Amino acid sequence: LKRCRIPSEVWNELAKSAQCTSASPASRSSSSSSTSVASSTSSTSPSSSSSSFVTTDAARIQLQDLQNWTYDFVKELWKDATSLGHAINKDGTPMKLGAAIVAKSFLQDAKLHAGPSGANEESGGAIVGGLHQEVGSWLKPEALVRQEVQNYEEHDFHDFVSPYWKEELSRVDRAEAVNIIQQLGGDDLIGWLRSKANDSVGGLFKQVLSWRVEFPETILLVQVGDFFEAWGSDAVMLVQWSGLRPMARRPRAGFPATAAGLQQVLDALTSQGLSAAIFVQTGPPGTTNQPRSLRQVVTPGMPTYLHGHELGKSNETTFSEGRPYVALRLGADGILFAEMRPFRREISFRAGVTPEAVEALLLDGQGIAEPILVASSNGAASEVRKWTWMPKHKKFLPLPDDVSDTQFLDTCCRTLCTMLHQDTSPSFQRIRLESHGALQPLTMATAANLGVLPRKGVPSLVDVMLDNDASAASRRLVRRWLLAPRGPESVKALRTLIKTMSEDRTLTLPPLTKGPSVGQAVAYLTARTAKQRLLRDIRHCVQQVHELLSTQRYGSLLPPLLVLTSAEIGGKILEQGALLADVNRVLELFEAWLLSSRNGGCQGCVADDDNDDGDEEEEEVVEEDDHVDGEVSMGGGSLREKSSAASAPSSASGSLWKLNLGDETNLRTFQRFTDCNEAFRGVLSLKQPSVREAYEKVEETKEALHRALHEAIVNVPGNLVEILVYNAVDNDLSLKAKPKNLRSLRAKDRKGKEKTNRYLSPNISTSMREYLEATQAAEVVVADGLYELSAELAVSMQTLRAVIVMHEILGSVHHHCVAGRARGWTLPQLSEDGTLDVQLTPYWLHVDAVSSRVQLPLGGGAIATGPNMSGKSTLMRALGSTALLGNCGFLAPAVGTIPAYAQVVFLAAEGDRPGEGISAFGQEAMLSSTLLQRACGRTLALLDEFGRGTEPLAAKACIGALVEELSRRGSHFVVATHLHDFVDLPLSLPPTSPPLAKWRMGILNTEDRHQNGVPQWTYALEEGVCHDSYAWVALRRFGWTEGALERFFRLLQQGSRQSREETIRSSPLAIPPPHGPPLDDAVVPTHSDSSKPRVAGSAASSWLSLISPSPSFSSSSSSDPSPPPPPSSPPSPSSTYSPSFSSCPSSYSSSSLVLARIPCNDEGGSAEGFSKVQASLAEIAGVPLGGVVELRPSATGAWITPPAALSEGVAVLYILLLRGKQFYVGQTDTLRGRLAQHRRTHGGKLQGMLVTEVVSNGGGTAAARHAETILQRRLLREGFSLISGHDATHQNFGLTPTTSMATSSTSSPTSMLDAKLEAGDVQQLREMAADLLALAKRWEERL
């Protein structure tokens, strides 16, 4: 005790407590074995003595003193035991970890650990609250002795290991991570203390244990100096999923404390469903015993760390919103399904959802974040456990049965905030998704078969609906609308918006630049950590929506857009005037705080460094002679050739830069130093007094530093080139030589060590210190300004939410209109009488897709039969996607009318689920039972080859029962099957039900139906019943040998002879001779390019593709003119779209709905010249003057968005307006891509663009190319300067193959455009085509 330096007043207390024991600890330690050493420390029982210490009024000894004395006591005790030879293992080796074990055991018995709150608790003078228990190893003995373990199972761990960590550790399969699992032990919380020799549970590890109690299923990442570290089981997860290596081959891992490194590790953990708690140091850098606090809990639902700026440069563009948290409440009318998104601070919910729809919603995107919150009322717990597809981790909320939905949602939000250690303020925005009258959410099977959810082999419907430029946010929005369709009001608004944007060919939009997501804006503004880039993105988004709200041109877009936005953000319907006023207030905030990106970076007397003068391209040359790490001098011959104005840093003082620094390179070095220390410039506006004062202080100290450098450099003898050196590591300036006539100092590095051959003057040292202090103060001012701006913007969070959502909806609808118009999609009409009548095509086919007409009366159904590979499943998906898109309000690959369905169901063979004990037919039975439970008169049921998993007789009976039941309920249904004799079943249909329609997939006429014995499909739907599946065609196509095919034919002929005779009578060549045609001559239907059949090796098909008697024509290139079109009757309005320009203004100047004219100055041409160009373009294209669309850069520099109706798939003629009174004439079918190409080519020379659709001469690509030639000739003839006039020399673009175009200047362009084919030319062309086809057939027969 004397060696432990315990004060004398404590001895008396120890003596009193020692009288209660049988012997003193010291005597027992000197005569006991190593086993008795531990028992002696335990038998000391300091709880009684510690109580007396704590309650002693005279000494008031602190608990920390007791812990220190106890540590010293055990340490001295262990020294005595070691010197006497008692610290020996059974095998004779010395105990290496004995001291740590004894100390931990002693402290555990004394119960000196802190409680869960992290602070020691005293209750009645006794110390309470143990944190953990001592354990040997987390693995059982039999698991430890196994050799070459690939991974451990859950049963390999002791019972004290929590089930969560058993599951996570059983997933570990990386060799380095598996090896350190064997070292987990010492405690039952993190499994690390056993490996920490000669240390007690105190300091940082004591905090870690208390944090583990608070976060039992979360990885703890603790900042320790310049690193983040993790121990025990947490280190195993880092090694396994983040690719880190363990430290010293022990369960300890770490990585540098940088924003990028931390986010990379967090992304790896959250992608595996893991969560992490980030604890950062809050004390001054370099101090010991750093205090630490929880900064953020990062989970799969909140995967982005919002405080990366504290660790250095952070990248806000890598923001990820994460997966949603889900809450369920079971009720009599269905399930209340709620999604909670913490970053967005919103909860969206929908009532009446079916369990099958919940399964599909859980698979949307990347899945959900666990656990799922489930209200345990009404016996929900037992019901939910029956769902095999439910995630494993669930949290049941004990709520009364009579609790309201509002109370349930509030409880879910509070529970989530508690789990994530978030404040409940601001409250979650509540968004109710209207379900009354809406299409029910899709089941997982339906969503997967229709391409809404990914499924191998099924084309993605969302990818086809949007063009390639659509953002990921647009794709997520469209997918959510398809999975959970919106209510009738939202569908009506969406149809109106799409109709306006797809039909108005002069409607340009504000620049739809990529904006921030709602989650990103709300998360950073709520955390007050929004930085310059995010704030500028929000500002641009607000400016674009402000233009939309304040411009009369967009009046037709606003009503439906406001309805859709209101439905997506919750609350009442937005009003244009109120929203515009709120947007104006937000813009005023930005103007008051944020520096405009169009200001050029200079305000008042203080320069901004946004407009860098090329310094980013300068090369940094490191000194090689007197080399010092981090030093940079700006040298190089190419730099000397630059003008001094470009190289000099901008400044408030005009006379400052007249001071000589000896050489241009020295001035560049000084500029590099100031640039690196003034990164805060270009962020906040100088309208704020604190910002202006901070900037003025920086300018003042910079000028003083510049004068000090000038004073020193002019006194340096010899060559002054590159005499000034900037060291980026030490962040200082120094001279290579001593200045004369001035007192000089040796420059020092950041650690205070003097540098070699680096000098300063006292004035330089003082000025540089003051300058760095001023820049640091300015950085603090800017950071405080951004914090305050974020706080003020957070007050207008609902307005920003509306603006961002409106911007996202507008962009998504525009991309959908562009893609839909390019594919020829239309808006189906919603029938009021419940009839279905559409001409549809498969949604993923574009060129030469075969269409089919589908007609079903009210309550009607159909049976579709057909051969293998003839397109039955394709037809079913086309019908299902058309019904889904039409009822959601989108464009669809169909023309006609569809009913307003309440449910669309697609059933197909899904295979078995052996892990759940469900066979293939059991899966079909389960899906069909769901259909029978909810089918009604507004149901569309599509059954693709139902009953495949059972024998044919039972399958026909199942199909018949489904048909009768669906007919009784008045549902629309289509059954595709190979059970051709199903139509002969005696079905009992309701008397009021229409007769069952019989459809089949078509085959060519009898004389043309076979090509060398192979049937030819038409891929079109027709009335009738197919009696043969032509299975041998598919077998041969996919590689069956001729021997196997002969066996197939033999066994097929030995089947039912009566059935075979009926089949042969209906299809004479259904079974070909044993030696059929070779595989190369088989039918190869290429659905990716065309739905029409292609016969390999057939010359006739190639002639048909080159010369077609079809009245339509197209031209693929100017050098390969198309054949002349034959005369035909005028097309009907339903078959050919004729754009209407009756509502267009006669001129730009007289219309308030047209954007301002492109400025025409001395560089871009006169106003008179502009009008002539515009008039010529409209005349030659065949449109009124108001039909010419003007595209130009907006106020922010981004180009306005072209009309959706002209962006893709429409032949347009355009004129580029370039600087220097130059023009460029062109034509294209892809306007957006061509505009982007011209912007890259011409850059800043491009001032604007005039564009219009070509409707003269029937329109199309050929007419546009010819109009391009005519327009170039006219502009050249009138004296305009064209940068390219090559196309003006072209003679023919497929319009008049028999008569050359007149090229003389006296010929009228109108007369050339009006040239027509004569009837004799058409007849001659048709006769030539027939002769060529006959010749091709004879040649094939001869071969």
Question: How can the largest sheet be summarized?
Answer: 6 strands, mixed
Q: Give the oligomeric state.
A: single chain
Structural class: alpha/beta
Beta-strand share of residues: 5-15%
Count of DSSP strands? 39
Rounded to an integer, what's the Rg over CA atoms?
40 Å
Summarize the structure in words.
There is one protein chain. The protein has 1343 residues and is α/β, with parallel strands linked by helices. The chain is built from 42 helices and 39 strands. It has a six-stranded mixed beta sheet with strand order 14-13-10-11-12-15, sandwiched between helices. It has a six-stranded mixed beta sheet with strand order 28-29-30-26-31-34, sandwiched between helices. The protein has a five-stranded mixed beta sheet with strand order 7-6-5-8-9, with helices on both faces. Strand 11 and strand 12 (346-353) form a beta hairpin. The longest helix is centred in the middle third of the chain and has 34 residues, at 762-795. The radius of gyration is 40 Å and the shape is globular.
Give the helices and strands, then pairings.
Blueprint: H1 8-18, H2 25-31, H3 34-43, H4 46-55, H5 63-83, H6 98-110, E1 121-123, E2 126-128, E3 134-135, H7 141-144, H8 163-170, H9 175-181, E4 186-187, H10 203-214, E5 219-224, E6 227-231, H11 233-242, E7 252-256, H12 259-270, E8 276-281, E9 292-298, E10 325-331, E11 334-341, E12 346-353, H13 355-362, E13 369-375, H14 380-385, E14 394-397, H15 405-420, E15 429-432, H16 444-449, H17 461-465, H18 472-483, H19 488-503, H20 518-527, H21 532-550, H22 558-569, H23 576-593, E16 602-603, E17 606-607, E18 631-632, H24 637-640, H25 644-647, H26 664-677, H27 689-713, E19 724-727, E20 732-735, E21 745-748, E22 754-760, H28 762-795, H29 797-823, E23 829-831, E24 836-840, E25 852-856, E26 861-865, H30 872-888, E27 894-899, E28 903-908, H31 920-934, E29 939-944, H32 952-968, E30 972-976, E31 997-1003, E32 1010-1011, E33 1014-1015, E34 1017-1023, H33 1031-1037, H34 1042-1053, H35 1057-1066, H36 1099-1106, H37 1167-1181, E35 1189-1191, H38 1204-1207, E36 1208-1218, E37 1222-1230, H39 1231-1242, E38 1246-1253, H40 1261-1277, E39 1281-1282, H41 1309-1313, ...
Parallel strand pairs: 5-8, 10-13, 12-15, 13-14, 23-27, 26-30, 26-31, 28-29, 29-30, 37-39
Antiparallel strand pairs: 1-2, 3-4, 5-6, 6-7, 8-9, 10-11, 11-12, 16-17, 18-19, 19-20, 21-22, 24-25, 24-27, 31-34, 32-33, 35-38, 36-37, 36-38
Helix pairs in contact: 1-4, 3-6, 5-6, 9-11, 11-12, 18-29, 19-22, 19-29, 20-28, 21-23, 21-29, 22-29, 23-28, 27-28, 36-42, 37-40
